[in-house]
């Protein structure tokens, strides 16, 4: 992911999740490291919090072949994401039927 000069929307959610995990404090961290990790993690947790943002990020990642298994989501989030995408695809078929 870090080698991309122009990351796409589908990379945001996996990267955000990875950063949150990386900035979780560990028992062996010294006080300064814990404070820095805590500050960064708190800032990251304020981002992409609305349901609309989360759904958009999950859907874009699901449509990217690199992330289609959605390993960074819980099982419930995976099911919800693919259910939403399936419903949206079905609504497009009704609105624009194939001849």
UniProtKB/TrEMBL annotation:
This is Zinc finger BED domain-containing protein 1. It comes from Merluccius polli (Benguela hake).
